[in-house]
Design goal:
The complex is a heterodimer of chains A (83) and B (389).
Chain A lengths: L2 H25 L10 H45 L1
Helix pairs in contact in A: 1-2
Chain B lengths: L2 H10 L1 H16 L7 H26 L8 H18 L4 H24 L5 H23 L4 E2 L4 H8 L1 E2 L9 H27 L7 H23 L4 E2 H19 L1 H11 L1 H6 L4 H27 L2 E2 L6 H11 L11 H20 L4 H26 L1
Antiparallel strand pairs in B: 1-4, 2-3
Helix pairs in contact in B: 2-15, 3-9, 3-10, 3-11, 3-13, 3-14, 3-15, 4-5, 4-6, 4-13, 5-13, 7-13, 8-9, 10-11, 11-13, 14-15
Classes of the chains: A mainly alpha (83), B mainly alpha (389).
Chain lengths: 83, 389
Amino acid sequence: MNNGKTRASLLGVAALYLLYICYELYQSRDDPNTTMTPAVRIIFIALFVIAGIGLLIYAVREWRRSRTDDDQPAAQDDKNSLK
Amino acid sequence: MDKKAILAALKKNAMLVVTVLVYLFFLILTQGGIFSPSSFTELINQNAYVYILGAGMLMCMLTGGNIDLSCGAFVCLLGAFGGVFMIVQGMGTGVSILLLLLIGVLYGVILGYLVAYVHIPPWIATLAGYLAFRGWGTAILSANSKTGSLAPFPVDFQRLFYGRVFPTDKGVFNWPCFLFGLLAACLIIFVVFTTRKNRLAKGYEADSVKTSALKSGLGSAAIILVMTKLAMDGGIPTTLLWVAGVVLIYSFITSKTTIGRHFYVVGGNMEAARLSGVNTRRIMFLAYLNMAILTAIATFTVIARSQSAYADVGKNFEMDAISACVVGGVSASGGAGTVLGMVIGATLIGIINLGMSLISLDANYQRVVKGFVLLAAVVFDIMSKKRAK
């Protein structure tokens, strides 16, 4: 199991959790018991959406980077086998 | 001790320092409320599941950053089964516990087989459980109860997982609890110095006498403080015994056994481990079987504390366990991390949860704080990886 890919998956899960927090904050907008003002809620939702999407993009890039690292040794072997 | 040595020690124990600082922060915010005897009991009871699931998640993450997304939903399902066995069917506590453990083993075997031998990525295999188990558990509860929850669990079950050892009334000092704390403190000092002596005898590097004395002194003082507070609040919670048992067993496995070292080796470099003769498939299988069994044990503490089985139980448990490991220094790439680190991470999360509920912080702000803690841990992990490169 490729550790780079696994790490990227874990970062992806963290990103999805941040987006899930945004969803929970949005769902609680009509809660009469909350002390969070709409403006503060929007700020936190925006912050977590940016962080979540940013982390997701980073996780995808890490995944692709580790896939490239996986392919490179195979290419090296092919080169050697032609000799 | 010179300045450089102090800074190096602080860096090495950064998470422990952060935990103490966060505790002091809430101590001021709650005006001493978090230092009360009942808060110490609540910290242990409320967060027992984080320590137990954290130990299981640690073993999974050691194998290469693998996680279990289904543990929270599996707690809901097992809670529903537990409710049916003990409340609806009226089965004995012992039989019900055995049946629930068997269900845990069955799930662990299936999951371990899918991950280790069929090579399904763990996060996909456990995502199926995350999506299915809560619905299944809710269906069981709805079919057996008009309110959608099952309560109350038998008294002996609650005593076993949410009771006290040698209980006394609150306000009466519990001497067995305090003496147990003194014993544990003496044991820590003995273990630290014996380990130092053994390492020196084998020619390894060891801490100086001063450092060993400081480490063991601080550890003992912390234990005596906790046990004194628990003694003032009616005695040792049985939850603490379950948590301590799990932590000690897994500390031993990860540091003193061959199979424990194999978990680290598989996480460090799976191919090298395989070529060295380590049965990597068996290690992966055991990681997920172990996680399922620990999830069953965590379920007992959770449903005993809530005294009911309900549909929302176990929500976000997997994220709490993962956060405890990541905050405690378990590497997202695998091959690094300790049980002590996980315990510190779980304690930090527990203090944050307890502090927020003591100051009656709005649920939305609690979510925001949890999000920031996770973000900080992830950023720290990314920066550490960049520095390592």
